[in-house]
Amino acid sequence: MAVYTHVSAEALAEFLTRFDVGELVSAKGIAEGVENSNYLVETTQDRFILTLYEKRVAADDLPYFMALLDHLAAKGLPVPPAIKDREGREIHELEGRPACLIKFLPGVSLSHPNVAQARAAGEALGAMHQAVADFPLDRPNSMGFESWKPLLERCGESLDGIAPGLYRDLDFALGDLAETWDRQGLARCAIHADLFPDNVLMLGDAITGVIDFYFACTDIRLYDLAVAHAAWSFDTTGEHYDEAVGNALIEGYSQSFPLSEVEHSAFHDLAVGACLRFTLSRAWDWLNTPADALVTRKDPLAFWRRVKVYDPDLATLLPTLA
Ligand SMILES: Nc1ncnc2c1ncn2[C@@H]1O[C@H](COP(=O)(O)OP(=O)(O)O)[C@@H](O)[C@H]1O
Ligand SMILES: N[C@@H](CCOP(=O)(O)O)C(=O)O
Known about the structure:
322 residues, alpha+beta, Phosphorylase Kinase, domain 1, Aminoglycoside 3'-phosphotransferase, Chain: A, domain 2, 2 domains, 5-stranded antiparallel β-sheet, two-stranded antiparallel sheet, binds adenosine-5'-diphosphate, binds the ligand N[C@@H](CCOP(=O)(O)O)C(=O)O, nucleotide-binding
């Protein structure tokens, strides 16, 4: 459940008068998602998504996210830009939170993507990377490689409450990765950084929307593909790898954006990095989400287990993966 901030009908009706979008007909809180409060808003003219930004999304970063969405939408990619009010503003305040009214896109996000759907997602990610070649803005990755060790230390020995020995194993894996991380100086660009199946809307095998750009940043282009690969190619426990789905994602990507030899050889390191990033952020949330919070915590070990596929040699040195 992700509705942290309640929006009253009166406040929403008044908010909508700033835009040329008709009058409020209905508004329903959306259960999916974990970061922000989302409402499906229907007006006399259309449907919209109302997002109130919470938790990890800093108001100062919103101009970057909105500019990126505008840039991609202008190039014909299926992303949802924010609706501009009569004065051209996209970023607003509602119930004390930063808020945007966003274009509604059709489609559903999948729990178990198939090979064709993974290929389409890879292709869309490659097309996005092509489209940002002339995107002028930069945003450092606040959840990038340099943040992982500090996040590990903030979680501390409490990690052992999730799995005995997890703190030591994560520390070891991070040290191992630091030896080789981006030694090649791989190409960078604006990346999505969270391209999980729940952030892609589809109808059949066709992509109708790529959403949730709130971790977007400038980072290694191939890392975006590695995140998507780790997110799309395993079951929810992280125990079972679907190689056909993983390969289709990479093949689809390569059709839009061919990978170099160097990128092929660096892929597994970046995928281990993706596993560590989501293990750590999920572990932090696991340890710090109040028991009565109306949000479902995600299993940190599901990403940790994926390391066995991406670096089997490293995994043999990690007792928690035995
Ligand atoms: N532009 C959109 N069009 C249609 N549905 C959307 C759109 N944006 C979000 N949603 C719906 O809201 C849900 C949560 O959105 P998301 O951005 O993933 O939230 P969070 O940032 O909290 O993770 C999505 O799973 C989807 O069902
Ligand atoms: N995709 C991340 C969590 C971020 O949540 P999202 O709903 O904004 O995609 C994870 O699964 O750990």
